[in-house]
From TrEMBL, chains A, B:
Name by which UniProt lists this protein: Acetylglutamate kinase
Pathway: Amino-acid biosynthesis; L-arginine biosynthesis; N(2)-acetyl-L-ornithine from L-glutamate: step 2/4
GO molecular function: acetylglutamate kinase activity; ATP binding
InterPro entries documented for this protein: AceGlu_kinase-like_sf, AcgluKinase_fam, ArgB, Asp/Glu/Uridylate_kinase
UniProt domain Aspartate/glutamate/uridylate kinase: residue ranges: 7-243
Pfam families xrefs: AA_kinase
Keywords in alphabetical order: Amino-acid biosynthesis, Arginine biosynthesis, ATP-binding, Cytoplasm, Kinase, Nucleotide-binding, Transferase
Main location: cytoplasm
Position of the signal peptide: none
């Protein structure tokens, strides 16, 4: 029987507020067994770009990662956020080990091809981009990998990569070895049936229901890429995907996405 | 018989110049077998402190690591320098994995006690601060740990730590498992008999000779802490300490320090 592996993704909100971050770290420490944490950047990186006088580069309304921006987000995500998280996790008894995709070549990305827009130093993840063997070695040594949203191309170039994509690609890559549960943590208790009612969490969604909820316009537009991504992970062998509040991971309120 | 482990320490100069950094990475890739790289910060961090308007805090002529400074050096060392080095090493065929001391609790430091001066968030390393087991696991998995000069106290606090001290403490901690050779790389070809003659490299120094060279004033004042540190590492079981040029690690010109 395969062991359970919990992959958690956290983003802004919890990363931007020290008290929330420590509350999350305590909750995360109570999750038993093998686990991986993937984190985005939070608002701090944008503030720092501003403090350094680096103007946001926008093309057709999309943010571009130029060389100066990549430098700052690498420092912020892989340096500050990752190391502060790891130190906090260590203090709470989780043997965390921070990684970018370059470390141990654990996530090798492809610089996004230029079509209409040149996104700059942004990395996309092909299906075989994750070294599941290395993550398995670390997990079996009792370590908790903490992945930031920086990858590399194997040719010496670091790349900025979406943290949701990293979480689902890692979850999929490990599905052959573990019974993987993928947790997208955010600032709401789950997927809401009514965007104006925080208590309207849908406890479980199956693919047919999801199609119907989308057709009915129940799912908020911003949630659709996240949920499409989540159902694709289920299709690819991930056992369960959970959408939940970052500070309530050990509570029952959440949305569980199921394969059928 | 114990396997050989080479521990290299690099600092400013090679880190501040991209062409030199890539030249070092190529040379380092040619060093066979198990190896660890420890790096300092270079001048970039000081420039960034200036760009962010963070004034250097000095007490009695010594630089203090206050909270804002720690933030920046963590970003710079653990984020930018470490990840750029790791990505460059990967591209040159070395399976590098970057670590701060917090990662996997690999180096646990003690915040420097306040005596005459409060140095702020600076970490000193007791003899048992390094997790040799974890470094051994990574080395035996074919990885090359790349350690930056940031450690932690195990209570959630990151600490700025001298990179020479990290290199020698790591070398000492691994001396029971490996035949360790510790390499301090800098911008000269070795210890010079005549500070004004770059060709006057002393090929080998034994402890008795070192005492004599110090007494005669031959050793430059700035080299004394480095060499004291190096001979202490030899006393503690490190097999060999080498002082050499960062871009000539595979050449014969160097100073080898021997136990006797």
């Amino acid at each position: 029987m395969k062991q359970v592996l919990n992959v958690f993704k956290i983003g802004g909100g919890v990363l931007d507020d020290e008290a929330q971050l420590h509350a999350f770290v305590r909750e995360f420490g109570q999750v038993a067994g093998r686990k991986i944490l993937v984190h985005g950047g939070g608002k701090g990186a944008s503030q720092m770009l501003q403090d350094l006088g680096i103007q946001p580069q926008m093309v057709q309304g999309r943010r571009i990662t130029d060389a100066a921006t990549l430098d700052v987000v690498t420092m912020f995500y892989a340096g500050k956020t990752n190391k502060q998280l790891v130190a906090a996790l260590q203090s709470a008894g989780t043997n965390a080990l921070g990684l970018s995709g370059a470390d141990g070549n654990v996530i090798r990305a492809i610089k996004r091809p230029v079509k209409d827009i040149d996104y700059g130093f942004v990395g996309d993840l092909p299906a075989d981009s994750v070294d599941a063997g290395l993550l398995g070695t670390l997990l079996e040594a009792g370590l908790t990998p903490v992945l930031c949203a920086i990858t590399h191309d194997g040719q010496g170039q670091l790349l900025n990569t979406n943290a949701d994509t990293i979480a689902s690609t890692v979850a999929r890559a490990l599905a052959a070895r573990y019974e993987v549960e993928l947790h997208f943590c955010f600032e709401k208790d789950g997927v809401l049936a009514d965007i104006n009612d925080e208590a309207s969490v849908i406890p479980e969604i199956q693919p047919a229901q999801y199609a119907q909820l989308k057709a009915e316009g129940v799912i908020a537009a911003g949630m659709i890429p996240k949920l499409d991504n989540a159902f694709a992970a289920l299709e690819a062998g991930v056992e369960k995907v959970v959408i939940e509040h970052a500070l309530k991971i050990n509570q029952l309120v959440k949305t569980v996405l199921c394969r059928s």
